[in-house]
Design brief:
The complex is a heterodimer of chains A (516) and B (255). By secondary structure, chain A is an alpha+beta fold. Helices cover 34% and strands 21% of the residues of chain A. Chain A folds into three domains: 140 residues, Glutaredoxin (3-Layer(aba) Sandwich); 276 residues, Rossmann fold, CATH 3.40.50.880; 28 residues, no CATH class. Chain A has a nine-stranded mixed beta sheet, sandwiched between helices. In chain A, α7 links the parallel β8 and β9. Chain B is mainly alpha-helical. The longest helix of chain B has 34 residues. Chain B starts with a helix and ends with a helix. Classes of the chains: A alpha+beta (516), B mainly alpha (255). Chains A and B meet through α1, β1, α3, β3 and β7 of A and α2, α7, α8, α11 and β1 of B. β1 of chain A pairs antiparallel with β1 of chain B, so a sheet runs across the interface.
């Protein structure tokens, strides 16, 4: 009889196999679940320089604010991108921007939480779909177009709206891609169906609205879906009822009592007013009085700071303002940042006094927006004809800190989260802040303008950095073409030949040592 | 852990003692050099808003060697043991099966990392030589390195499975190549599906976008770190290694 203990134990292969299959199925399920959760809850962080591949804050805010789904349809014959030179000019631009555009639309999709979808339609391969879109959105005869649709409203963008190309002999090169700017601005127009009208007051020597000085500001407002019209208060019975904002920019002559009454009537009816008024040799008494009634008193002092150059010559510093760090949403991004306001003799600045008594008596909320940095002071009764630098008189002149811009809200609720329509006013003691140079020089001026106007328009969710145009450039290894060619040759030699050869030699040594 | 470390060291050594590995290294480096040179030359001719790092990794001179290197790296990991007859001694040795699988995987991964070190040195050489950085922020360097590591882990794990399933190296290489090519060229599908918003294909567009290597590569090479590909590659690597482990173990209970 054999000993039962020494009998080999049988393996139940079927059981083991089943166990393995179950384990693999369970792991499959876990992998699926992990990926499902990861797909739904993900995070993207842009570590590129200036986060240049991320959407601008304003675009992200706009996408988050969408209450209904938005759609983009790109109608373009993508298959013929290599034949761009034979296309119409619009399609040529589409051919050049298509890669960037697809990436951008994907970013919009990713940042929208499922509210933005896009479709690319090749009019040759999918003629029925292309025709359907062209008819539905009344695009007309064009081969390439980007249609944007939101809540039953639609607009379309052509190649010129999206980019700029430089035509060479054989090909076209992309110079700049304006995609995000154009799409966000168009979406903004569709999202904010209510027309926002800015009335630009004229008749007091203000810079021409259609002139070069206001070009950048004008374009910025257009992109923010703000339509502008000029308004001469002397020729109207009242400020138009559809005015969203009234802007007084750099008047050289004073306002009449009647004009200020019209402006006051408008403001009291939950109106929104911006006044940019710098130092003037002849003070604008009436306008300053109107502003003082609203708690912000222009001082008509000439804000400046002088010092000595490297050679010891006395000189004036460039006028600079610092954005305040305050809870008001206008400045959420630029609080503490400086803005250059130019030569104080060319664009003189005056300081503003916030009237605390008025604040309490008239239920006004006064908030400083820009202040002058240390060392700046306000010269009272400046002699404009004097060639000498002004001196500081402690008895008369205004010492810092000085307020250069402020906001006033009448009857604002104590809780800032409660939204109530109230009269709002922004006063800036400089007339050139919205002119092209300070606006163009840095993104700060543009962000400030967008902040102010969106705050005045009750669109606080859109206060953020606006999308900017992306430009392309050629890499230059050296200014001298010959040196550049030489550098390229050395690079090629090093990376294609020298480095692999070094590893080949190491390999040969290892092989030889093991063999012998 | 100590056993795993010793086994991995053994695998790495076996890679570096093999002349084939040096041939692979030299060819891969030369092609990567071409990709790098092509990137610099392209950017000196065509105006662009991209970095040298991005154009290098997004060039066909990089992508094809990247695809072909995977089967070459992994074809021998298990199949070689079968060929040399050392598989029996390995399975009866006092080491656990998972340690063997992980050691094979890490051995191939170390060699894979070594393949890429010179390419990153090119970027620093370029900065030193021209005074212009290959990317103007650390993001593209780290992003591309992270993606190449994650994708490499995934493809190596796939190759390990192919090698464990085949006794012949050539079969393992062919299987691994087919799997890699199939996976990588799923990225070509977005050309047909991208932006197709019809309800019936919407999920497919999103799915392909989620798994496509050619979607992940530009994102990470631009310095954008996205958590989705990280989870995707790590989870699939774990899955393939788990299956490889069972395939390797099946030899014991099947016979």
């Amino acid at each position: 009889m054999s000993d039962p203990a020494s009998k080999p134990v049988g393996i139940n292969r079927g059981l083991i196999g089943t166990n393995v299959v179950i384990q693999i199925v369970v792991l499959f399920a876990l992998v699926f679940m992990a990926n499902y959760v990861s797909y739904r809850q993900f995070k993207r962080t842009d570590f590129s320089r200036d986060s240049k591949y991320s959407l601008a804050g304003q675009t992200r805010n706009l996408l988050k604010s969408l209450k209904k789904p938005a759609h983009a349809y790109v109608v373009f014959n993508n298959g013929a991108a290599d034949m761009a030179m034979f296309m119409d000019p619009d399609s040529q631009i589409f051919a050049a921007v298509m890669g960037d555009l697809t990436t951008l639309l994907r970013e919009y999709q990713l940042n929208s939480g499922g509210k933005f979808e896009f479709e690319i339609v090749n009019p040759y391969a999918e003629s029925k779909r292309a025709e359907e879109l062209m008819t539905k959105y009344k695009v007309g005869e064009t081969e390439s177009v980007l249609i944007l649709e939101y809540d039953g409203r639609s607009k379309f963008l052509t190649g010129k709206d999206l980019g700029e190309i430089e035509r060479g002999r054989e090909s076209a090169r992309l110079k700049g891609f304006k995609g995000e700017r154009a799409i966000t601005s168009t979406l903004l127009g569709l999202y904010d169906a209510k027309p926002n009208k800015l009335f630009y007051v004229t008749g007091h020597g203000e810079p021409d609205w259609d002139g070069k000085a206001m070009l950048y500001f004008r374009e910025t407002m257009e992109r923010q879906n703000v339509k502008a019209e000029t308004l001469n208060l002397a020729n109207v019975e009242a400020v138009p009822a559809d005015a969203s904002v009234v802007m007084v920019n750099g008047p050289r002559f004073d306002f009449s009592e009647r004009e200020l009454k019209l402006l006051g009537d408008y403001w009291e009816k939950k109106g929104r007013v911006v006044v940019c008024s710098g130092w003037s040799a002849k003070p604008l008494e009436q306008l300053n009085g109107w502003l003082a009634d609203r708690g912000i008193r222009p001082q008509n002092d000439w804000v400046n700071k002088s010092g000595r150059t490297a050679t010891g010559e006395p000189a004036l510093f460039e006028m600079v303002g610092i954005f305040s760090k305050n809870p008001i949403s206008i400045l959420k991004l630029i609080g503490g940042v400086a803005i250059r306001l130019g030569d104080p003799t060319v664009s003189p600045t005056q300081s503003l006094l916030l009237d605390q008594n008025k604040q309490q008596a008239d239920k006004l909320t006064l908030t400083p927006l820009i202040s002058a940095p240390d060392g700046f002071w306000g010269k009272v009764n400046l002699d404009p004809k004097s060639q000498e630098l002004p001196y500081y008189d402690p008895k008369k002149d205004h010492q810092g800190p000085l307020t250069l811009a402020a906001a006033c809200v009448k009857g604002a609720p104590a809780d800032p989260s409660v939204k109530v329509e109230t009269p709002r006013l922004v006063v800036i003691g400089n007339s050139s802040i919205f002119t092209t140079r300070p606006m163009e020089e840095s993104g700060v001026g543009e962000t400030f303008a967008i902040g102010i106007f969106n705050w005045l328009l009750d669109r606080e969710e859109l206060i953020d950095i606006a999308p900017r145009e992306k430009s392309t450039k050629i890499l230059r290894l050296d200014e001298d073409p010959e040196k550049e060619t030489r550098k390229l040759k050395i690079l090629a030699l090093t990376v294609i030949l020298v480095v692999p050869l070094i590893f080949a030699m190491i390999g040969a040594v290892v092989w030889a040592r093991r063999r012998y | 852990m100590r056993t795993l470390f010793h086994l991995t060291a053994r695998e790495v050594k076996s890679f570096f003692y093999s002349p084939i590995a040096y041939v692979m290294l030299v060819i891969f480096l030369a092609l990567n050099g071409v990709a790098f040179y092509y990137a610099v030359q392209t950017l000196t001719k065509i105006p662009a808003d991209e970095s040298v790092v991005f154009v290098t990794f997004f060039s066909p001179f990089f992508v094809w060697p990247f695809i072909l290197i995977m089967p070459l790296l992994t074809m021998r990991v298990f199949a070689d043991e079968f060929r040399m007859g050392t598989i029996e001694s390995l399975t009866t040795a006092p080491v656990k099966d998972w340690q063997v699988v992980m050691a094979k995987f890490f051995g191939a991964l170390v060699f894979y990392i070594v393949l890429f070190i010179p390419t990153y040195c090119y970027f620093f050489f370029y900065k030193w030589f021209t005074g212009i950085p290959a990317a103007f922020a650390a993001g593209p360097y780290w992003g591309s390195a992270l993606l190449l590591l994650l994708a490499g882990m995934f493809f190596i794990s796939m190759g390990c499975l192919a090698s464990a399933l085949n006794r012949e190296q050539i079969n393992a290489a062919a299987m691994s190549l087919v799997m890699t090519v199939l996976f990588i060229f799923l990225a070509a599908l977005p050309d047909f599906f991208v932006g197709k918003n019809e309800e019936e294909t919407k999920w497919l567009t999103h799915f392909i976008g989620y798994i496509s290597f050619f979607e992940h590569l530009p994102t990470f090479c631009r310095g954008i770190i996205d958590t989705r590909p990280i989870v995707f590659y790590l989870s699939l690597t774990a899955l393939f290694l788990f299956i490889t482990h069972h395939v390797f173990q099946a030899r014991k209970w099947k016979s």
